[in-house]
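A.,

Following up on our hallway conversation. C-alpha coordinates first:
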Protein backbone atom coordinates (compact mmCIF):
# COMPACT_ATOMS: atom_id res chain seq x y z
CA UNK A 1 0.00 0.00 0.00
CA UNK A 2 1.12 3.54 -0.73
CA UNK A 3 2.62 5.40 2.22
CA UNK A 4 1.36 8.95 2.69
CA UNK A 5 2.82 9.71 6.15
CA UNK A 6 5.82 8.10 7.82
CA UNK A 7 6.79 8.86 11.41
CA UNK A 8 10.29 7.81 12.45
CA UNK A 9 11.85 7.92 15.93
CA UNK A 10 9.76 10.91 17.05
CA UNK A 11 10.48 12.09 20.59
CA UNK A 12 8.75 14.76 22.65
CA UNK A 13 8.85 15.96 26.23
CA UNK A 14 7.33 18.85 28.13
CA UNK A 15 9.73 19.72 30.94
CA UNK A 16 10.27 16.55 32.97
CA UNK A 17 7.34 14.74 31.37
CA UNK A 18 8.30 12.42 28.52
CA UNK A 19 5.37 12.15 26.12
CA UNK A 20 6.94 10.32 23.18
CA UNK A 21 9.97 8.13 23.81
CA UNK A 22 10.17 6.92 20.23
CA UNK A 23 7.19 6.85 17.89
CA UNK A 24 7.43 4.89 14.64
CA UNK A 25 4.33 4.66 12.46
CA UNK A 26 3.36 4.53 8.80
CA UNK A 27 0.01 5.76 7.50
CA UNK A 28 -1.31 4.34 4.23
CA UNK A 29 -3.11 6.37 1.61
CA UNK A 30 -6.90 6.07 1.88
CA UNK A 31 -7.04 4.35 5.26
CA UNK A 32 -8.63 5.37 8.56
CA UNK A 33 -6.01 4.98 11.28
CA UNK A 34 -7.01 5.50 14.92
CA UNK A 35 -4.64 6.49 17.71
CA UNK A 36 -5.89 4.91 20.93
CA UNK A 37 -4.55 5.11 24.47
CA UNK A 38 -5.05 6.57 27.91
CA UNK A 39 -5.06 10.25 28.76
CA UNK A 40 -1.56 11.72 28.63
CA UNK A 41 -0.15 9.17 26.18
CA UNK A 42 0.42 11.86 23.56
CA UNK A 43 -2.23 11.05 20.98
CA UNK A 44 -3.27 14.65 20.36
CA UNK A 45 0.34 15.83 20.60
CA UNK A 46 1.23 13.43 17.80
CA UNK A 47 -1.74 14.63 15.76
CA UNK A 48 -0.69 18.27 16.15
CA UNK A 49 2.89 17.39 15.25
CA UNK A 50 1.71 16.27 11.81
CA UNK A 51 0.97 19.88 10.84
CA UNK A 52 3.57 21.63 12.94
CA UNK A 53 1.33 22.84 15.78
CA UNK A 54 3.63 20.93 18.14
CA UNK A 55 7.32 20.41 17.38
CA UNK A 56 8.92 17.09 18.35
CA UNK A 57 12.34 17.18 19.99
CA UNK A 58 13.73 14.63 17.56
CA UNK A 59 12.95 12.26 14.72
CA UNK A 60 11.29 12.76 11.33
CA UNK A 61 7.76 13.07 9.97
CA UNK A 62 7.52 12.51 6.24
CA UNK A 63 4.51 13.66 4.24
CA UNK A 64 5.09 11.94 0.93
CA UNK A 65 8.86 12.56 0.55
CA UNK A 66 9.14 15.75 2.60
CA UNK A 67 10.33 15.77 6.21
CA UNK A 68 8.05 18.44 7.59
CA UNK A 69 10.06 18.72 10.82
CA UNK A 70 12.65 20.57 8.74
CA UNK A 71 10.04 23.11 7.57
CA UNK A 72 9.56 26.61 8.92
CA UNK A 73 6.13 28.26 9.22
CA UNK A 74 6.15 29.47 5.62
CA UNK A 75 7.00 25.97 4.36
CA UNK A 76 4.17 24.51 6.44
CA UNK A 77 1.45 26.65 4.85
CA UNK A 78 1.03 24.48 1.73
CA UNK A 79 1.18 21.35 3.91
CA UNK A 80 -1.72 22.66 6.01
CA UNK A 81 -3.81 23.00 2.85
CA UNK A 82 -3.28 19.29 2.16
CA UNK A 83 -3.58 18.05 5.76
CA UNK A 84 -6.69 19.36 7.53
CA UNK A 85 -7.21 19.40 11.29
CA UNK A 86 -10.66 18.98 12.86
CA UNK A 87 -10.39 20.50 16.33
CA UNK A 88 -12.25 18.90 19.22
CA UNK A 89 -14.78 21.73 19.63
CA UNK A 90 -14.91 23.01 16.08
CA UNK A 91 -12.73 26.13 16.62
CA UNK A 92 -15.09 28.25 14.53
CA UNK A 93 -14.90 32.03 14.17
CA UNK A 94 -17.70 33.22 16.47
CA UNK A 95 -18.21 36.49 14.58
CA UNK A 96 -18.59 34.71 11.21
CA UNK A 97 -21.67 32.97 9.90
CA UNK A 98 -21.43 29.32 8.91
CA UNK A 99 -21.04 30.43 5.30
CA UNK A 100 -18.23 32.84 6.14
CA UNK A 101 -16.44 30.21 8.24
CA UNK A 102 -16.27 27.89 5.23
CA UNK A 103 -15.59 30.65 2.70
CA UNK A 104 -12.62 32.01 4.67
CA UNK A 105 -10.02 29.36 3.69
CA UNK A 106 -11.18 29.44 0.08
CA UNK A 107 -10.74 33.22 -0.06
CA UNK A 108 -7.37 33.06 1.69
CA UNK A 109 -5.79 30.15 -0.14
CA UNK A 110 -7.38 29.92 -3.60
CA UNK A 111 -8.11 32.15 -6.56
CA UNK A 112 -11.77 31.15 -6.69
CA UNK A 113 -14.34 33.83 -7.48
CA UNK A 114 -17.28 34.52 -5.18
CA UNK A 115 -19.74 32.55 -7.29
CA UNK A 116 -17.49 29.50 -7.24
CA UNK A 117 -16.89 29.92 -3.50
CA UNK A 118 -20.63 30.05 -2.81
CA UNK A 119 -21.22 26.92 -4.88
CA UNK A 120 -18.38 25.08 -3.08
CA UNK A 121 -19.51 26.14 0.41
CA UNK A 122 -23.13 25.13 -0.15
CA UNK A 123 -22.12 21.79 -1.68
CA UNK A 124 -19.87 21.08 1.32
CA UNK A 125 -22.65 21.94 3.79
CA UNK A 126 -24.88 19.55 1.86
CA UNK A 127 -22.33 16.79 2.43
CA UNK A 128 -22.51 17.18 6.21
CA UNK A 129 -26.29 17.61 6.27
CA UNK A 130 -26.27 21.32 7.14
CA UNK A 131 -27.48 22.98 3.94
CA UNK A 132 -29.90 25.72 4.93
CA UNK A 133 -27.89 26.72 8.02
CA UNK A 134 -25.33 28.85 6.19
CA UNK A 135 -26.58 32.16 7.64
CA UNK A 136 -26.47 31.05 11.27
CA UNK A 137 -23.73 32.09 13.69
CA UNK A 138 -22.01 29.41 15.81
CA UNK A 139 -23.78 30.69 18.94
CA UNK A 140 -27.11 29.89 17.30
CA UNK A 141 -26.20 26.23 16.78
CA UNK A 142 -25.95 23.19 19.02
CA UNK A 143 -22.54 21.80 19.92
CA UNK A 144 -23.09 18.88 17.56
CA UNK A 145 -23.93 21.16 14.66
CA UNK A 146 -20.86 23.28 15.40
CA UNK A 147 -18.72 20.15 15.29
CA UNK A 148 -20.14 19.24 11.89
CA UNK A 149 -19.46 22.75 10.61
CA UNK A 150 -15.87 22.25 11.81
CA UNK A 151 -15.66 19.10 9.71
CA UNK A 152 -17.16 20.93 6.75
CA UNK A 153 -14.60 23.72 7.02
CA UNK A 154 -11.82 21.15 7.11
CA UNK A 155 -12.98 19.36 3.95
CA UNK A 156 -13.91 22.43 1.90
CA UNK A 157 -10.32 22.59 0.56
CA UNK A 158 -10.42 18.89 -0.46
CA UNK A 159 -7.40 17.84 1.67
CA UNK A 160 -5.53 14.59 1.17
CA UNK A 161 -5.47 13.85 4.91
CA UNK A 162 -7.87 14.78 7.71
CA UNK A 163 -6.82 14.71 11.37
CA UNK A 164 -9.71 14.30 13.84
CA UNK A 165 -9.18 15.20 17.50
CA UNK A 166 -12.01 13.63 19.54
CA UNK A 167 -14.63 14.43 16.87
CA UNK A 168 -17.53 12.71 18.68
CA UNK A 169 -16.67 13.66 22.28
CA UNK A 170 -19.78 14.76 24.16
CA UNK A 171 -22.09 14.44 21.16
CA UNK A 172 -25.56 12.93 21.15
CA UNK A 173 -26.14 9.73 19.13
CA UNK A 174 -27.53 11.58 16.09
CA UNK A 175 -24.56 13.92 15.69
CA UNK A 176 -22.12 11.12 16.47
CA UNK A 177 -23.68 9.12 13.63
CA UNK A 178 -23.39 12.09 11.27
CA UNK A 179 -19.67 12.43 12.01
CA UNK A 180 -19.13 8.69 11.57
CA UNK A 181 -20.98 8.70 8.24
CA UNK A 182 -18.83 11.65 7.11
CA UNK A 183 -15.62 9.79 7.94
CA UNK A 184 -16.87 6.75 6.04
CA UNK A 185 -17.94 8.84 3.05
CA UNK A 186 -14.55 10.54 2.85
CA UNK A 187 -12.82 7.18 3.07
CA UNK A 188 -14.88 5.93 0.12
CA UNK A 189 -13.57 8.92 -1.84
CA UNK A 190 -9.95 8.05 -1.05
CA UNK A 191 -9.30 10.53 1.75
CA UNK A 192 -6.85 9.44 4.45
CA UNK A 193 -8.01 9.96 8.05
CA UNK A 194 -6.17 9.83 11.36
CA UNK A 195 -8.48 9.72 14.33
CA UNK A 196 -7.95 10.35 18.05
CA UNK A 197 -10.91 9.20 20.13
CA UNK A 198 -11.97 7.23 23.21
CA UNK A 199 -15.28 6.32 21.57
CA UNK A 200 -14.95 2.55 21.20
CA UNK A 201 -18.02 1.98 18.97
CA UNK A 202 -16.69 4.61 16.55
CA UNK A 203 -13.17 3.13 16.67
CA UNK A 204 -14.37 -0.36 15.82
CA UNK A 205 -16.71 0.86 13.10
CA UNK A 206 -14.50 3.18 11.05
CA UNK A 207 -10.89 2.11 11.65
CA UNK A 208 -8.85 0.11 9.19
CA UNK A 209 -5.98 -0.03 11.66
CA UNK A 210 -5.57 0.96 15.31
CA UNK A 211 -2.39 2.07 17.06
CA UNK A 212 -2.36 1.68 20.85
CA UNK A 213 -0.02 4.14 22.58
CA UNK A 214 1.53 3.22 25.89
CA UNK A 215 4.55 4.59 27.76
CA UNK A 216 5.58 6.87 24.93
CA UNK A 217 5.56 4.29 22.14
CA UNK A 218 3.23 2.50 19.74
CA UNK A 219 2.70 -0.56 21.89
CA UNK A 220 0.35 -2.44 19.55
CA UNK A 221 -0.62 -1.86 15.92
CA UNK A 222 -3.18 -3.93 14.09
CA UNK A 223 -6.43 -4.19 12.19
CA UNK A 224 -9.77 -3.87 13.98
CA UNK A 225 -10.02 -7.64 14.15
CA UNK A 226 -6.48 -8.06 15.47
CA UNK A 227 -7.04 -5.45 18.18
CA UNK A 228 -10.41 -6.93 19.18
CA UNK A 229 -8.88 -10.39 19.44
CA UNK A 230 -5.79 -9.25 21.36
CA UNK A 231 -5.05 -11.02 24.62
CA UNK A 232 -2.76 -8.24 25.90
CA UNK A 233 -4.19 -7.53 29.39
CA UNK A 234 -3.49 -3.79 29.25
CA UNK A 235 -5.07 -3.39 25.83
CA UNK A 236 -8.07 -5.54 26.75
CA UNK A 237 -8.48 -3.65 30.00
CA UNK A 238 -8.37 -0.32 28.20
CA UNK A 239 -10.97 -1.38 25.62
CA UNK A 240 -13.26 -2.67 28.37
CA UNK A 241 -12.87 0.50 30.43
CA UNK A 242 -11.03 -1.29 33.22
CA UNK A 243 -7.67 0.46 32.79
CA UNK A 244 -6.40 3.87 31.71
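Then the amino acids I'd put at each of the 244 positions:
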Amino acid sequence: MEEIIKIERVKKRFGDKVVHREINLTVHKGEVLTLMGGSGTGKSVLLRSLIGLDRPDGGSIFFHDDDILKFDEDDLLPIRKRIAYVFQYGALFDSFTVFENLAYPLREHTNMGEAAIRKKVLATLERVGLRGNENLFPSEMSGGMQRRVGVARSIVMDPEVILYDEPTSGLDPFNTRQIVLMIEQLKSQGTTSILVTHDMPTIFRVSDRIAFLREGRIDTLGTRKEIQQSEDPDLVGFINGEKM
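Residues 3-239 form a domain with the Rossmann fold fold (CATH 3.40.50.300). Curious whether your intuition agrees with the design.

B.
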